[in-house]
Structure formats: structure tokens, C-alpha cells
Design goal:
Blueprint: H1 30-47, H2 49-60, H3 68-89, H4 93-105, H5 107-121, H6 135-149, H7 151-154, H8 159-177, H9 189-203, H10 207-213, H11 223-246
């Protein structure tokens, strides 16, 4: 039997920090935190000496020497170094890189939502909006466009991403032929032209494709003519997306695709949407079923 005064053996694994000279205990000791802060200053000086000078002056002034956008920009730039410093401290650099890759991979979805869904399909006052009756014909042509022109996208399990990447390709082609391709994207110009040639060929490779897209792709030649053809395909995707939102079954998909969720109009006396299930008891209110987020357990 162990004596009452004997200390138990702690066999739990020890946390090893990634910065030499520091232990876990330093993280809750004032002296350790002071040394850690000094180490970060040395880190920032090594990587961006000019930024350290600006940040150090900012700290010494108590945050009073900078304001507005300049202050925000400095803090954001420093925060990037803080993130890398902490990843090194806790030996999670590979996990941080993996997370950054996954988050960067989501950027096309944000571009798709902003540039296509918000600014084109559901733009307030957008002309030529289709009706629900037009959906079957639009759906048949859109499916054919994806099948022939973007077969690699249709093989992906993530339908939302495959649709986003396909339409973003068309939007890049629109920028190319309209002369609006950003300077940093100019190295892609030759590849985009090759992609458009392959896309046009694929869409006209079958009788069904020629029937569906022959009139849209009849113009060839200079960039102005190619732009007309690209915009015809984008118009199809635009009208199809809008008509699908009207479909009684398919519109429920909008509640599962984040790219299709749009902010509702702001009505200050109805900020929370309520459903009253019993007209005889109006004091009973609940949230609409499709807005509920169910938890396991």
C-alpha cells in the first residue's frame, strides 16, 4: 500500500513546445510570457523589420499614433506573423498549412456567390427573368452544357463546387474577350483561349449539342464575336439558376448550398421570422422548420 505522503507518478505525455528554451509552464508565468513576447519581436524583426518598427511605435503610443484603415492594415499584417509564430510554438505548422490549403480551396465558392449569384442572377432589377414554366427547357440545355463542356466537373461528388467552377470558367472567358481580365491573370490568357476552343468543339461534337448550342456559338472570329458566344452560355446558366429557385422541389436545395443563400430584406419590426402553429393561441411562436439546425443527441 502506498504511503499517504508519496506523490503519484505522472505518466501522462508532456507537451513539448517548438521554440527552444520554452516549456509549457512558461505560458502562464509572467517572466515566461515576457520572454515569449521578446522572442516574437525578434521573429517579426527578422521577417519584416519595417513592419516591426511601425508596430513597436504603435504599442509604445498606446495605439494612439495610428487610426482608421492604416491601423487596421498594420494589425492584420502583424496577425499573420502571430499565427505563424503560434503554429511554430505549438508544433502545428503542418496542420496550419493543411487548414490554409482547405480554406483557400473554398475561395472559388465565395467568388461564385459574389460575382454570379448575387451580382447577376439575383441582382435587383435584373432584366429578362424566366418563369417556372421555362425551367424544363433551361434544365435540359444546362445539363447538356455541363455534360459536354465540363465533364470533369460532373464527375465530382460536390455538385455545388462543380457548378461554381464551371461557371467561373465562363466568367473568366467573358473577362478575357471583353478586355477586362485583371493584370495578374494575364499569364492565363493563352490557356483560357485554348479552353474556349476546346469548350466550343465539345459543345458542337454531338447532334444534341449542335441543336442546343449551334445558334449560340455561330459567331466566331475576333474577341467581340467570341464574347457574344460566351455571354450566350452565361445567360443560359443565369436564367437556369433563377428558374431553379422557383421550382417547388429544387428550391429547397438553396437551403443546403451556402452559395445560394442570400440575405433577406431588413425589416426592423420583423427581424426574427416566426411561425404561429395554433391560430387560437397566438402567443405560441416557433422558428420555421427549414431554419432549424438539428443537433445529434
Amino acid at each position: 500500500m502506498r504511503a499517504p505522503t508519496a506523490l503519484p507518478n505522472d505518466s501522462s505525455p508532456k507537451l513539448t513546445l517548438g521554440l527552444p528554451g520554452f516549456t509549457f509552464e512558461d505560458l502562464y508565468r509572467p517572466r515566461g510570457l515576457r520572454r515569449l513576447s521578446e522572442r516574437f519581436d525578434a521573429w517579426l524583426t527578422e521577417h519584416e523589420p519595417e513592419l516591426f518598427q511601425v508596430f513597436d511605435a504603435y504599442r509604445k503610443s498606446g495605439g494612439s499614433n495610428l487610426s482608421g484603415a492604416i491601423e487596421s492594415n498594420v494589425l492584420i499584417r502583424v496577425s499573420r506573423h502571430v499565427a505563424r509564430f503560434l503554429a511554430c510554438l505549438f508544433n502545428i505548422e503542418s496542420e496550419q498549412e493543411d487548414l490554409a490549403r482547405r480554406l483557400t480551396g473554398e475561395l472559388p465558392l465565395f467568388d461564385f456567390k459574389r460575382d454570379f449569384i448575387t451580382r447577376r442572377v439575383f441582382k435587383k432589377g435584373a432584366p429578362d427573368r424566366p418563369t417556372l414554366a421555362e425551367f424544363p427547357s433551361l434544365d435540359a440545355r444546362m445539363r447538356l452544357l455541363l455534360q459536354l463542356g465540363f465533364p470533369e466537373a460532373s464527375s465530382l461528388e460536390d455538385l455545388e463546387r462543380s457548378l461554381a467552377e464551371s461557371i467561373l470558367t465562363l466568367m473568366d472567358l467573358e473577362r478575357l474577350f471583353s478586355g477586362a481580365l485583371p493584370a495578374e491573370q494575364q499569364p492565363r490568357a493563352a490557356a483560357l483561349r485554348e479552353r474556349w476552343t476546346a469548350l466550343r468543339t465539345a459543345l458542337l461534337s454531338t447532334p444534341e449539342g449542335r441543336d442546343a448550342f449551334g445558334s449560340s456559338l455561330v459567331t466566331t472570329g475576333d474577341d467581340a464575336a467570341e464574347l457574344q458566344s460566351v455571354r450566350a452560355l452565361l445567360s443560359l446558366a443565369d436564367r437556369w439558376t433563377f428558374a431553379r429557385a422557383l421550382h417547388p422541389q429544387l428550391k429547397e436545395l438553396f437551403h443546403t448550398w451556402t452559395t445560394h443563400r442570400l440575405p433577406k430584406p431588413l425589416v426592423f419590426d420583423q427581424l426574427v421570422q416566426l411561425h404561429r402553429p395554433d391560430p387560437n393561441l397566438p402567443e405560441i411562436a416557433e422558428s420555421p422548420e427549414h431554419h432549424l439546425r438539428h443537433r445529434d443527441g
